[in-house]
Amino acid sequence: MADTLERSPLRADLLLLTVTLLAASGWIFSKEALAGMPPLLFIGSRFLLAGLILMAFALPRLHRLSTRDVAAGAGVGMLFSGALTFWILGLFHSRHLGESAFINSLGILLVPVMARLLFGDRPPRTTWIALPIALVGFALLSLNAGLRLEPSQWLFATSALLFSLLINVNTRVVRRLPALPLTAIQLTVVGLVLGALSALVEPWPARIGGVTLGWLAASVLLASTLRFFLQVYAQGLTTPSHAAVILMLEAVWAALLAAAWYGETMTPLQLAGCSMIFAALLINRWYWVRKLVLRTAGDYRK
To answer: Is the CB of residue 153 less than 8 Å from the CB of residue 205?
Structure first.
């Protein structure tokens, strides 16, 4: 059977690069919106609206899903809600978006570790090489705060752990379901759950300004709806492992955008810590990184 990389490699790569830029932009959109909205209300509104928009595109396929399939997708959406709760609270408390994005990317590295603990899968040898490097990188980031973890750091670390669990469960529980209606169900569930939680625990503002609504709209339309729509389409043109290599660039773009938008700079410890985490991600995906580089070099020679 022909490798799916041959379907449309250039289109897939360009679309996935666009996805990483949209995802990274979402960090800026979200941080700006949080200046005028409580965190749970913002993330609940963002994902509910994005989920409903995707529902419109996925409606024909949604009608063909069984009740059991919808329940499975909604169950994963509940887990997604937990991961996003820690993510948005981490973003709310974060004082350095670039660092936070790299900590959040630890979730990719933890996927095979979680698969080993929960399902008995055997991770590749590169995982065990990459893991201590990533932990040293995370330790360097905590040293930057003076031998302690800042609230945003442990919130993002918890979010990364939950995202690694989410990816494993999503792969196993709903692997037979089409991606677009599944994504629509999950995003809608996240919106409903976190919107309800916000109503219970957060004071809602009497008025939300137009600027904040603009950032919310950008988060919904660009960083959520368009991003997930393109990601689902692009992943259908390549393999999951190949896509994961490109999607790792989100943290790099987020750091660059934060530097451009907020003027963020990194201390030597932060730079070393983020570099080690990114190196660990590359090591963990070394087989696919090497394959991508060789294929790209071959395309240029042509």
So the answer is: no
Q: Look at residue 2 in the predicted model and tell me its pLDDT.
A: 39
Letter string b/e over residues 127-166, b meaning 16 or more CB atoms within 10 A of that residue's CB: beebbebbeebbebbbebbeeeebebbbbbbbbbbbbbbb
Tens-digit pLDDT profile for residues 227-275: 988 988 887 777 666 677 788 889 999 999 999 999 999 889 899 999 9
172-175: long-range contacts (C-beta < 8 A, 24 or more apart)?
A: 172/119, 173/72, 173/75, 173/76, 174/69, 174/72, 174/73, 174/76
Q: How far, in Å, are 107, 234, 241 from residue 284 at the CA level?
A: 12, 22, 11
Least confident of 163-167, 207-211, 293-297: 293-297
Question: Which amino acid makes up residue 284?
Answer: N
For residue 231, the model assigns a pLDDT of 86
Give residues with Cβ within 8 angstroms of 165, minimum separation 6: 79, 83, 114, 118
| pLDDT, averaged across the chain | 87
Q: Which two tokens stand for residue 148?
A: 């302690």
Distance of alpha carbon 273 from the chain centroid: 20
Identify the residue whose tokens are 């089409």: 178
